[in-house]
Write a structure and sequence with these properties.
Elements (H helix, E strand, L loop, with lengths): L4 H11 L6 E5 L1 H11 L3 H12 L11 H11 L7 H10 L11 E8 L4 E5 L4 H8 L9 E3 L2 E4 L9 H6 L4 E4 L15 H22 L6 E4 L19 H20 L2
Parallel strand pairs: 1-2, 6-7
Antiparallel strand pairs: 2-3, 2-5, 4-5
Helix pairs in contact: 1-3, 1-9, 2-6, 5-6
Length: 261
Amino acid sequence: MLGSAEVGMLQALFDRDIVPDLVVGSSVGALNGALVAADPSPATIQRLSDLWTGLSNRAVFGGSVIGQIGTLARHGTHLHANQRLRRLIDEALPGMRIEDLPVTFECVAASIEAASAHWFDSGPVAEAVLASCAVPGLFPPVEIGGEHFLDGGLVRSVPVGRAVELGARRIFILHVGRLEQPLSPPTKPWEVAQVAFEISRRHRFAEDMASVPGGVEVHLLPTGSSARTLSVRYRGVGGAETRIAAARSAAARYLDAQTGS
């Protein structure tokens, strides 16, 4: 649900006629980004807002706890099948291919066999986005062309470096809020992996930011949220409308301060 903050940031950008000619996305950013690349208009922003505020607990992470245990027992690697997420993507972007999108779009996933980042710049949008969103332990790896992929956040959580590689000179980073939250030592067993992952992803982001060449303008938009975002909870979908509004307001203040308006 943290991905809903990106919708508020998009609203603030479109309110100021800032429209992308390149979109790169990772994990939930791949989902939001693909819709924007398919139709970079205010109508899509409203569509995304309706999508996020209309989600129910059963939309993506459906099923009972017993069902989750059954899925884990059968497959041994994940709690949820990805059919619901696939259906959501198919309904939003039916039959579309990356190379046919009006706006240049790439998304990233982590290749298991190659142990590296894999950027999708062609092929079916749904397959690429599904791979980029394959959260380890929650969803199964996605097989494409005999290769298996997991969530893009494992390798390029905030892909500012890829935008630079593709020639971007004015970059707006739409993140989900974790970058704004300070880390503290874990106090519970399940927090250990969370904190370790956050250290890794933030270190990579800091390296990418430090390597941005001169002449490239980078804006890290705020979410406007002060809530602690490190949590093992993932099924709850409440609060999307509030998160969208907060991000829109915070991003608007930031953008207006940059232009002096």
